[in-house]
TrEMBL record:
GO cellular component, one term: cytosol
Binding of substrate, residues: R10, H11, G12, E13, T14, R15, L16, N17, R61
One Gene Ontology biological process: negative regulation of glycolytic process
Keyword Heme: no
InterPro entries membership: His_Pase_superF_clade-1 (IPR013078), His_PPase_superfam (IPR029033), PG/BPGM_mutase_AS (IPR001345), Phosphoglycerate_Mutase (IPR051695)
Gene3D superfamilies, per the entry: Phosphoglycerate mutase-like
Keyword Nucleus: no
Species assigned in the record: Tursiops truncatus (Atlantic bottle-nosed dolphin)
Catalytic activity, reaction form: beta-D-fructose 2,6-bisphosphate + H2O = beta-D-fructose 6-phosphate + phosphate
Full protein name: Fructose-2,6-bisphosphatase TIGAR
Source domain of life: Eukaryota
Family from the record: Belongs to the phosphoglycerate mutase family.
EC assignment: 3.1.3.46
Amino acid sequence: MTRFALTVVRHGETRLNKEKILQGQGIDEPLSETGFKQAAAAGIFLNNVKFTHIFSSDLMRTKQKYGVAEGSPLSELRAMAKAAGQECPVFTPPGGETLDQVKMRGKDFFEFLCQLILKEAGQNEQFSQEAPSDCLESSLAEIFPLGKNCTSTFNSDSGAPGLVASVLVVSHGAYMRSLLDYFLTDLKCSFPVTLSRSELTSVSPNTGMSVFIINCEKGEVKPTTQCVCVNLQGHLTGVTKVH
């Protein structure tokens, strides 16, 4: 069994986030002043965590596409959904991605990630040489509730193999929510019992952090996933109101 950690962080606030304007692939809005403060706070919070892989959206604020609603106020999307007789969360504007399409992008990336980690773990032992598994795990445990929200899998006496990798992904709110939905509905991810359904389906605040432990094996259809935390935002205390 190959185990790795996945930390997913939403980008900092942009001016359009604050104004509730829809942003997708067609709008590459930079961070606002508040967004830079949030990103700085997230960087300080994660400073001592050891990551072996880092992936980021290629947009400045870190892809979701809203079609004709791109760049419009959220209120307009709600009006379009109402006119179509649908609820806003499941409504797809003309030319936009459906929720299933966004979810599929998340699934494809996750499967790519699992195969990449399995391949690298099988090729050599550079993970343990460059960043020992106990070091990867302990650096996460310093700031995230690994032991509190997870089972004895994280106990060194449990016999579970150490982490071979710790992956950081910086992405977007809607994409993260779709990835979380994939973990919840398709992979039957184990979540902390303290989390409500609404917390699991809500969009992450800017620079909100979610952490998962992934267990995968070659030839296994679906990896097992365990959630450590969802949309953590304690690092923003005293920074500003988040959106």
